[in-house]
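Attaching the record inline, Q. Sequence:
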Amino acid sequence: MYDYDVVVIGTGPGGEGAAMQASKEGKSVGVIEKYSLIGGGCTHWGTIPSKALRHSIFRMTELNSSAFTKDLGMSLKLGFPEMRRSAEAVIAKQVDMRQGFYSRNRVTLTHGHASFLDEHTIEVCEHNGGCQRVTAGGFIIATGSRPFRPESVDFDHPRVYDSDTVLTMNYTPTSITIYGAGVIGCEYASMFRNLGCKVNLVNGRDKLLEFLDDEIIDALSYHLRDRGVLIRHRENFERVEPRDDGVILHLQSGKMLKTDCLLWAAGRQGNSNDMGLDSIDIVPNKRGQIEINDDFQTKHDHIYAVGDVIGPPSLASAAYVQGRYAASHFINGHADRAMIQDIPSGIYTSPEISSIGQTERDLTEARIPYEVGHSMFKSIARAQITGQTVGMLKLLFHRETLEILGIHCFGANASEIIHIGQAIMSQQGSANNLKYFMNTTFNYPTMAEAYRVAALNGYNRLF
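Structure, as predicted:
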């Protein structure tokens, strides 16, 4: 009846996960990509380029701070444009690799802008103006998001950036104001400070990244300030005044901040515009996000939405599994909910942050009896060897059953370390137990040993 069993709109992590899952289950799959290269914002403007940039900046900072380099009287001074180029090779490899995924799995890839004509038909218009109609039994919308841009801010000015355009910056500023202290704002505050820039980080809330455990929030705030980042909480912008020699951010409190440039990092907006969603009675919210149920279905059972276009958690890792879940649910009528539960966060500040499960605040409010186990990285031999001694691993566990309830990590390689605990935390019944870490032999010296130290630390608090 249809051209395809499933049509996926978008080739970011959510679209790729959906397309690969549907193909593996034997369905005919068509994928629509608006841009000439696949990979979505994750590959071209977000996760991959920003993390490659961060890695280059971190390596330069590490080199310049090492005792060996100082003894030789050496230092490496590279600017933002040179650091940014490190991402180009990575992006090319990612695009080539992902192109192969679609080819090997016989997924038809069409480039053009998709818009719905009815519940089973879309029109795909190419950049040269040619259009074609495509029908499918089901659709998975994975169009991602873009930076939210208030109309009152002149983003065409060469000194005003958002998280997409900042990667085109062709100079190294001596000072920068970052408006918005969410994940993106905190990550770029770390990067620019490591480049030697003076950084103003303006936050509209009481704390940084309030969804994190309070102890991790405090650690992040302390280390950003210790590095020289000026954090201003509970501040909202009045207006932005771009000038030839910089940008003045006027705040509602009456404060004025003038720096070489401004990075606007206050929220994101779903890419749901001009998709003909009104023709199928789907109305996104004011941030362009599509409302879905627990199975990622829109108001039409055969039309799903995944990834950033549905809002938080806005993680590439989450989008990929959401895409897989949606495809499996459409094909089979059900899917394994374990795929989309307890998704770890990964925040690439300096140092990194990663967490999974409940925070102390959550457990206290729920009146769950818990205890805390800490391992400070300064006491871990591997951290002493590498010189990356800032940070800690924190385990939250039930006082009576010893079930792991939350894991929070702050420090070098936190986004890797978290997965060891995730594997145990995901076990059913008594297999999720603090004693696993106490009774398991870890290689020495490793950062993984922090789990044993934290487990013993917490267990010794029990009485």
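The CA atoms of residues 40 and 267 lie 18 Å apart. The chain has a mean pLDDT of 94.

More tomorrow.
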